[in-house]
Write a structure and sequence with these properties.
The structure holds two protein chains of two kinds. Chain A is of the alpha/beta class. Chain A is built from five helices and 16 strands. By secondary structure, chain B is mostly beta strands. The chains are: A alpha/beta, B mainly beta. At the A-B interface, strand 1, strand 14, strand 16 and helix 4 of A face loops of B.
């Protein structure tokens, strides 16, 4: 399996192309943009997008769906029933999503937003804005912050230190790094 | 992505090192492995999907080489030359870099979190969207570099220079700044001492 990060310059966010080792169906996580560079990356590797996974429905993570839908007939998986007027396949905690040989597991992580999800495949975890390198996601009030922190502690910190995290903003990290250095989470322990 | 083969030592689940059937913990002859991997690095210019986790090397020449999707975690590099190298999605967390030169390098989506960097140069480099979370620097120079969207959260920076750097959206929250210079850098556009997550 391969993971290609793609910087979404309009929303300063990250989109990820998750692909098998060879050609075939691939997954896009959080298409905040769908531009020529991303299309070239997909085509050059003889891939096609069959699955779109949405960690949450903030604009910088979904705007590319409009262009993508004109090129690929991909299933859109999200917590909400619609994203930008596109009907989705609604997913919840523990659901599995198959894309060719790739199998993603859904983890619900409310806090940054009500619809926040993470997707785990093997040793790789896509956390959206819930957990990024050294930081936790922004929240609108204290209750949401508590919810976010408890979501991370219960559902992510039970994973091994070696799990790679690919967040919605900024550089990648690992569970081990966050356990040691994420101050918001350490203070809450 | 970072090596496929599992270590052949019974009951070990670690990924085997590149050009070996074992992980660094179960290498029978570490010295001959270091010689073999050093020769491999010297002979090649492009590296993809290498696992070199847990090795100790010195005076290796990575200059002008492309390193993509590699795992250098828990390793030790002394006097290694990374000048004009290109690192893309490289995990070098919890590693030690002593007297290494990364000047004029390009580092994207790269992780040096939890690492110790001593007497290292990162001059005139593109260190974009890279993680130095919890890292410790001593006598390091990042002058004239682009650190856009990189993160030094919880890092300990001693006698380190960030002169004339682009630190737009660079995070320095909870960072120990001991004799650190940001002269001519755009400090107002970086995040200091306040917990700020993504929008």
């Amino acid at each position: 399996m391969r993971v290609f990060p793609h910087f979404v310059f309009t929303g300063f966010s990250n989109c990820y192309l998750v692909a098998p080792d060879g050609p075939g169906p691939a997954t896009l996580v959080d298409p905040g943009i769908f531009d020529g560079e991303l299309l070239k990356l997909i085509e050059k590797n003889k891939l096609y997008i069959s699955t779109v996974l949405i960690t949450h429905t903030h604009d910088s993570h979904i705007e590319g769906i409009k262009t993508l839908a004109k090129i690929y007939e991909a299933g859109i998986y999200a917590f909400r029933e619609t994203v930008l007027d596109f009907k989705t396949r609604v997913i919840r905690q523990g659901d599995k999503i198959k894309c060719g040989e790739l199998l993603f597991e859904v983890i619900e992580l409310p806090g940054h937003s009500r619809d926040s999800l993470a997707f785990k495949i093997g040793n790789y975890l896509f956390t959206g804005d819930t957990l990024t390198a050294g930081l936790i996601g922004t929240v609108v009030h204290a209750y949401a912050r508590g919810l976010l922190i408890s979501s991370i502690k219960q559902k992510l910190f039970n994973l091994e230190d070696s799990v790679y995290i690919f967040p919605g903003h900024g550089p990648p990290t690992t569970i081990g790094i966050e356990r040691l250095y994420n101050n918001a989470l350490k203070q809450a322990l | 992505m970072f090596g496929h083969q599992t270590c052949e030592h019974p009951s070990c689940n670690n990924t085997a090192l590149h050009l070996s059937e074992y992980c660094s913990q179960h290498l029978a002859d570490k010295q001959s492995y270091i010689e073999k991997i050093s020769a491999f690095i010297n002979e090649n210019t492009e590296f993809y999907g290498l696992n070199l986790s847990g090795i100790t090397v010195s005076k290796l020449n990575f200059s002008q080489k492309s390193i993509r999707f590699c795992n250098f975690s828990h390793s030790e590099f002394t006097q290694c030359n990374f000048v004009k190298s290109s690192l893309y999605m490289v995990f070098a967390d919890f590693s030690v870099f002593k007297s290494c030169d990364f000047s004029h390098s390009s580092m994207k989506w790269t992780v040096l979190s939890g690492s110790l960097m001593e007497d290292c140069n990162f001059l005139e480099s593109d260190l974009v969207r890279s993680a130095f979370v919890g890292a410790e620097t001593k006598n390091c120079k990042f002058n004239n570099s682009d650190l856009y969207s990189s993160r030094f959260v919880s890092a300990k920076l001693h006698h380190t220079e960030f002169m004339d750097c682009n630190i737009l959206r660079t995070h320095f929250e909870q960072t120990l700044l001991d004799e650190v210079s940001f002269k001519y850098s755009n400090m107002a556009e970086a995040y200091f001492d306040k917990e700020v997550g993504p929008a």
